[in-house]
Structures are given as C-alpha cells and as structure tokens.
Amino acid sequence: MDVFLNRIKQGQHIRLLEAHSALSAMIIENTAVVGNNGSKKAFDGIWLSSLTVSTIKGLPDIELVDITTKVNLIQEIKRVSSKPIVVDCDTGGLNQQFSFTVSALAGAGATAIVIEDKVGFKQNSLFDDHHSQVQDTIENFCDKIRIGKSTPTPHPIGIIARIESLVLGKGMDDALERAAAYISAGADGVLIHSKDKSPESVISFAEQFVTAHPGVPLVCVPSKFNSICDEQLFASGFHIVIHANHLLRAAYPAMFNVAVDILTHDRSYEASDKIMSIDKILTLIPGSQC
Ligand code: SPV
Ligand code: MG
Fold first, then answer.
1. Contact 148, 140 (CB under 8 A)
2. Is 272 found in the same domain as 233?
3. Are residues 127 and 264 in the same domain?
4. Domain co-membership, 208 together with 236
5. Distance 79 CA to ligand 2 centre (A)
6. CATH of the domain at 139
C-alpha cells in the first residue's frame, strides 16, 4: 500500500486495469501511450477482479474462486509484471477466516485487497435487482477490518473497505457514516461503488469524503458510469480509478467472432486479419525458442 500512499502524497493519481491471467497482465505491463501533456501514460497497477477471474473459469461471480487459486494467479502475474496488484476479495468471507485470507494474499505479494460490506450470498453489485443482497452491520465489518489489520504479514498489505450503500439504496448518509467508521477501524482506503449510469452520486460522495477525511485514499470503479474520464474523477477527489473488467470483455467477442468465421467459411483464412500472426504468437513470450 505504501507505493500508492507515496504517490498520493506527491499529488499523483493511480489507474488500475483488470487482469485475469498472466497474458492479460502482460498487456497492462507493456501498454503505454503519450498523454495530452506529452508525457508517458501507463497503468499504475493491476486489479484482480472477482468477476473476470470467475468468468474465465466458467464460474458465476459468487465467491467460488478460492484463495489458493488467487494466490497462484498473483504468482503467475508477478512473473510477467512488476506492477502493484490489488485483489478483489468479495466479502472477505467469515470474520473467523479473514486473517488466513489476508496472510495468504500478503504472502503472495498483493499490494492491497478490497473487501465489500456485504454478507451472505454475494452476487455482483452491477445487477439491476439488489434485493437478495444484504449489507453487513457497521460493527461486524469494522471487526473484519480490525482482524485484517492485526494479521501479521511479511510486508504491509492495504485493506480497502468497499461501501455498497449507494448500490443497495441505503443513501449517502449511510455511506458517509460507514466511511468514517471503517477508517476509524483501520481501513487504508475506501471504495465507494455505484451502479448508476451517472457519476453524480459518487462525485457527491467524494466531495464530502475529501473534506471529512483528507489524504485517505478514495477509490472508484466506473464500470457503469464510464462516460466520465479518469482525470475528471481525480479532479473530484478520487485517488485511484479501477477499470475492472475490460480486458476480458474485449477478449470474449474477439474470440467468438473468430469461432463464427471459421465455421462460416469452413477455414480460418478469412479470420487472418482478426488474429495474431503465427510469427507473433511464437515470439510473444520471451524464451519460446533457444
Ligand atoms: C469486480 O471486478 O469483480 C468488481 C467490480 O467487483 S464490479 O464488477 O464493477 O462490481
Ligand atoms: Mg467483484
């Protein structure tokens, strides 16, 4: 977490992109563009998304991917990228189990983890219908944060508290009350989530949060409200922006279209300009040929 805190102290902002495999992490590691001010613009870290890590395994996003699988994925990603990794830990599980999760992910080299304040049967927050989703009590979730923060780890790992009040229709006051409580319990940062198409509610949260908790890392995930630019979110008070599922969402239609092309034309020739050349894939991973 220090790597993020140091950047934030220097007035810098952090942009994360989702990876679900070592290959997708390689794209994050190696992609850079020239920004508007002429300087190099790259991603600052990797988001290990529960949605995409589940989807890539053909599983629904309901906390089925176990901790060992996440540890292994972190290790695979670390072979190809040195960027900080933030892990989506869903609800964090039972409080009694949480310290094992924290020590396993810290041991694997995660920079921070995010836990969301829901209990019971967790589903993805972006569904329109949220009626079966239950928010944790402030007391219980604060206990979970304290358990995480008091877990001995080989290096400090950040615990970011994700607030679901806006997603679950509990309102702004509830979200702000929870933010204050979670920070008092030791959270290293707060993620405010929303499934609105408009960024209005998260921006209003950010304005009030920044006044009440200056310097505490504030995170957002513009999955639904994606017409707003990262720079506008940073200007509104957010320090970290997570693009949470885009590489897998890009990969699926690309693969599907090639599958259709091969069946349609009874050969792969027509798909040639949609796919990487044989030469390129043979040399994509260094060390393939001696
Ligand atoms: C995930 O990536 O699994 C998330 C973010 O939790 S979102 O799907 O936007 O809720
Ligand atoms: Mg998730």
1. no
2. no
3. no
4. yes
5. 24
6. 3.20.20.60
**Same domain (yes/no): 54, 180:** yes
Query: Are 189 and 262 part of one and the same domain?
Result: no
The per-residue pLDDT for 130 is: 66
Q: With a 6 A CB cut-off, is 244 part of the ligand 1 pocket?
A: yes
Both tokens of residue 83? 């960027």
**What are the mean pLDDT values of the chain's consecutive 10-residue runs (290 residues total)?**
91 96 98 90 97 97 96 97 98 96 97 96 84 92 98 95 96 98 98 96 98 96 96 97 98 98 98 96 88
What ligand has the least distance to the C-alpha of 130?
1
Q: Which domain holds residue 218?
A: 2-244
Looking at the fold, whether 96 and 174 belong to one and the same domain comes out as: yes
User: What pLDDT score does 201 carry?
Assistant: 97
How far is it, in rounded angstroms, from Cα 253 to Cα 86?
26
Mutate to test the pocket of ligand 1, among 18, 47, 51 (most ligand atoms within 8 A of CB): 51
> What residue has token string 């320090």?
239
Residue 101's closest CA among 59, 133, 69, 60?
69
Calculate the alpha carbon distances from 214 to 185, 208, 211, 219 in Å: 17, 10, 6, 13
Does 117 participate in catalysis according to the annotation?
no
pLDDT of residue 281: 95
Instruction: List, in order, residues 6 or more apart from 157 with CB less than 8 Å away.
Output: 1, 102, 105, 106, 110, 111, 112, 113
C-alpha–C-alpha distance, residues 154 and 96, integer Å: 20
Radius of gyration from C-alpha coordinates of the chain:
20
284 and 175, same structural domain?
Answer: no
Say yes or no: CB of residue 221 within 6 Å of ligand 1.
yes
- Do 230 and 256 sit in the same domain of this protein? no
> Catalytic residue among 44, 61, 90, 188, which?
61
- What is the count of structural domains for the chain? 2
245 lines ligand 1 (CB under 6 A): yes
The answer to whether the predicted template modeling score (pTM) of the entire model surpasses 0.85 is yes
